[in-house]
Amino acid sequence: MKALVYLGPAKKALEDRPKPEITAPSDAIVKITRTTICGTDLHILKGDVPSCQPGRILGHEGVGIVDTAGPAVTAFKPGDRVLISCISSCGKCVYCRKLMYSHCTTGGWILGNSIDGTQAEFVRIPHADTSLYRIPEGADEEALVMLSDILPTGLECGVLNGKVEPGSTVAIVGAGPIGLAALLTAQFYAPAEIIMVDLDANRLEVAKRFGATGVVNSADGKAAGTIMKMTGDRGVDTAIEAVGIPATFKLCEDIVAPGGTIANVGVHGTKVDLHLERLWSHNVTITTRLVDTVSIPMLLKTVGSRRIDAKQLITHRFKLGQILEAYDTFGRAADTKALKVIIEA
Amino acid sequence: MKALVYLGPAKKALEDRPKPEITAPSDAIVKITRTTICGTDLHILKGDVPSCQPGRILGHEGVGIVDTAGPAVTAFKPGDRVLISCISSCGKCVYCRKLMYSHCTTGGWILGNSIDGTQAEFVRIPHADTSLYRIPEGADEEALVMLSDILPTGLECGVLNGKVEPGSTVAIVGAGPIGLAALLTAQFYAPAEIIMVDLDANRLEVAKRFGATGVVNSADGKAAGTIMKMTGDRGVDTAIEAVGIPATFKLCEDIVAPGGTIANVGVHGTKVDLHLERLWSHNVTITTRLVDTVSIPMLLKTVGSRRIDAKQLITHRFKLGQILEAYDTFGRAADTKALKVIIEA
Amino acid sequence: MKALVYLGPAKKALEDRPKPEITAPSDAIVKITRTTICGTDLHILKGDVPSCQPGRILGHEGVGIVDTAGPAVTAFKPGDRVLISCISSCGKCVYCRKLMYSHCTTGGWILGNSIDGTQAEFVRIPHADTSLYRIPEGADEEALVMLSDILPTGLECGVLNGKVEPGSTVAIVGAGPIGLAALLTAQFYAPAEIIMVDLDANRLEVAKRFGATGVVNSADGKAAGTIMKMTGDRGVDTAIEAVGIPATFKLCEDIVAPGGTIANVGVHGTKVDLHLERLWSHNVTITTRLVDTVSIPMLLKTVGSRRIDAKQLITHRFKLGQILEAYDTFGRAADTKALKVIIEA
Amino acid sequence: MKALVYLGPAKKALEDRPKPEITAPSDAIVKITRTTICGTDLHILKGDVPSCQPGRILGHEGVGIVDTAGPAVTAFKPGDRVLISCISSCGKCVYCRKLMYSHCTTGGWILGNSIDGTQAEFVRIPHADTSLYRIPEGADEEALVMLSDILPTGLECGVLNGKVEPGSTVAIVGAGPIGLAALLTAQFYAPAEIIMVDLDANRLEVAKRFGATGVVNSADGKAAGTIMKMTGDRGVDTAIEAVGIPATFKLCEDIVAPGGTIANVGVHGTKVDLHLERLWSHNVTITTRLVDTVSIPMLLKTVGSRRIDAKQLITHRFKLGQILEAYDTFGRAADTKALKVIIEA
Question: What ipTM score was computed for the predicted complex, to two decimals?
Answer without folding.
Answer: 0.97
